[in-house]
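batch job 7 of whatever, protein = Phosphoglycerate kinase
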Amino acid sequence: MAKKTIADIDPKGKVVLMRVDFNVPQDDSGAITDDRRIRMALPSIESVIKRGGKLVLMSHLGRPKGNGPEPKYTLEGVAKRLGELLGKSVAFAADTVGPEAEAKIKALSDGDVAVLENVRFNAGEKSGDAAFAAALAGWADVYCNDAFGTCHRTDASMVAVPEAMAGKPKVVGFLVAKEIEYLSDTISQPKRPFVAILGGAKVSDKINVISNLLGICDHVLIGGAMAYTFSLAQGGKTGKSLVEADKVELAKELIAKGGDKLVLPTDTHCGDDFSSDCNKQVVAAGEIPDGWEGLDIGPATAKKYAELLKSAQTVVWNGPMGVFEMPPFDEGTKAVAQAIADSSATSIIGGGDSAAAVEQLGFADQVSHVSTGGGASLAMLEGNKFAAVELLDNA
């Protein structure tokens, strides 16, 4: 799925319209609490401006209604933070396709940067409106997609805008190129043994991922609250654990399909309350007493999973093994993270909670790749193709 990248384009004197993912977390006052997504886009941004391109950045932030500006979702603070990281002035347009955006873009000199206001303030972004897309596309000589976190979506800035730029270069940024390399190319031709670890709360969120990976992996290890739905499917007792009773039949189908490939926990770390200081006990999987809930895989399961990971050559991990934010129920997730870090495998960590866990536990520098997109990485692990990537220029 190799695509041309921003490095393949000479941007000097050209307007480069780049879709980035600046959907950063903020506190109640609007202050950015984690600028990782801005920092991850810097290599692509710097590639354009250092080579004399005129860079126009567009992104969404949060979930505005699409009826105009909503101050809590403005990108003005993001533009300011980007300027601090770049060490240079960054222009900010208080609209997306209006007169201010047009004026700010026309005023750009080679090597300058402008950030447009939140694309989702316009209803046309979510609807894929052709006029909205044409207005954005009309300003640019080059389109660049460096927003992996939204690559699974068909919003105007992801699909209709590049479609409206027929005949002009349409490329990926370095971040999207890296995600494709790991999540698509590595998985399509994995070194074996290929082991997947899937956790999180709901089987329903991961059904298609589990099903797809069972077809290509040597082992699929299950943890997190979804394990209790599998326990229920095997006739086990789950106490007051989080389960999806309506997904038991699906769990049975996956057990039948998976055979020896599907590896379920053998023990469970339980609590009598959802808190760090609750009473605790370790029980065999499927034997959680009434009034107790499973909050982590047990030590025997953690040891077994670590052993399977030791010989792995390719590892994909999406979803924690337990309530990793609440010690001591972070032990299973820690054990898996440590085993991945210690292995010689190409290791790919899915976005969302898995990425947060790896960062929080200090293992981010010891894995091959931490994905920036939770929903997008899941969709790619399901084997889906993305229209936002397919329409870009092939290498």
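notes: The domain at 6-177 is CATH 3.40.50.1260 (Rossmann fold).
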